[in-house]
Write a structure and sequence with these properties.
binds zinc ion, 2 domains, 17% strand, disordered N terminus, 32% helix, alpha+beta, 167 residues, endopeptidase fold (from Nostoc punctiforme)
């Protein structure tokens, strides 16, 4: 376990044990939580459960983000199909990941098909959707604007909705 992950665990433990005073301190600490790059670097197109859930975009991406230290992703999400032990199951729904992106985002860039952020503006988490209908198929992955490369199960720039988030 690396330094970043240990920090995440310590924050989670403090949250479970204490009340308001620590909660205020947590909010300040969240500002130094791992970068998106930490997750991007850990993405390995797999999950610790070593099992395919069929549609794995959110499954494998959330696994990388959790291993980077984003332990908030360990509760409150749909995890059907992830075979990790209870307490370690990974989120598997793209739309739920997108909602989590929105909750953290300091930068949000949205466009239609083939939209992407300017080169050299860092690494983003991405939500792509097949059509503009809210019920349409969604997909999540990483986009590295510095190198013009994606990491994820798929990269779908021709889909109608392209949303890029970072913090
Ligand atoms: Zn899994």
């Amino acid at each position: 376990m690396d330094l970043i992950s240990r920090r995440g665990l310590l924050v989670a433990s403090a949250s479970a044990l204490a009340g308001v005073a620590v909660t205020k301190r947590l909010n300040a600490q969240q500002l130094v939580w791992p970068s998106i790059t930490e997750g991007f670097n850990r993405y390995n197109n797999n999950c610790i459960c070593n099992t395919s859930a069929g549609q794995n975009c959110a499954h494998f991406m959330s696994d990388a983000l959790i291993r980077a230290g984003y332990l908030q992703l360990l509760s409150g999400f749909t995890t059907w199909g992830c075979a990790a032990a209870w307490g370690s199951k990974r989120p598997v729904q793209a739309k739920e990941m997108c909602a989590w992106f929105k909750g953290r985002a300091l930068v949000t860039l949205k466009g239609g098909a083939y939209f992407r952020p300017a080169p050299g503006t860092g690494i983003y988490v991405v939500y792509q959707q097949y059509t503009t209908s809210p019920t349409s198929q969604g997909h999540v992955c990483f986009w590295d604007s510095n190198n013009g490369t994606a990491r994820g199960t798929l990269w779908l720039p021709w889909w109608a909705v392209q949303e890029f988030y970072k913090w």
